[in-house]
């Protein structure tokens, strides 16, 4: 299927690995001009090299900025002043008991997962509205609805992200601009792979055994009963970013393997 993304300009934050990289790769494969983003110049360079080697002629460049600071988010806005597609994918997570969460923990997770995306949207939404064309997509999580007890601060940040997307969508009323969030489920990204590998080694199990146990005990509601791949999430995001998804606006679009039982 041709997603009609040729000559579209896209910025994907947190795109040197995992879901972000898969999204950037898919958009580049569809003919979009893509700006990759990461915190490390080395990783950004490696990601750019990887995509251009896989897709000869791909128009890809990279920008470094630390979105854990407001200055970093504003620097990224200045470096990439105008795009057709903004994918706010950069995010952090980590298990920590609620009683142990510090003010710094809350500030950091909200800055990276919510505030940085708000800053970038504040930069790009007015330009999109002015030309009556554009897509803003927040990569949220099923944790926005199923708040995980082991990382409540993460779930709160993802719920805020989806609420932000819905609020911004209200500002697009009567235009061809859309703002959506995508609720990704547990995905086999770099961090998850390392966690599974380490746990398997520690408990003398196979990685497949660890995955099965996770979905039996921790996420029994999953209908696919496995981790999603970054490519599977990227396929959904690429469609939402395309002109073919023009009717999808203000939604929390599910790509979580059936974990959420609510139908609406």
UniProtKB/TrEMBL annotation:
Q: Which family does it belong to?
A: Belongs to the short-chain dehydrogenases/reductases (SDR) family.
Domain Ketoreductase residue range list: 8-188
User: What is any Pfam family matched here?
Assistant: adh_short
Give the protein name, as stated in the record: 3-oxoacyl-[acyl-carrier protein] reductase
Q: Which InterPro entries match?
A: KR_dom, NAD(P)-bd_dom_sf, SDR, SDR_fam
Which Gene3D superfamilies does the record cross-reference, listed alphabetically? Answer: NAD(P)-binding Rossmann-like Domain (3.40.50.720)
TM segment ranges? none
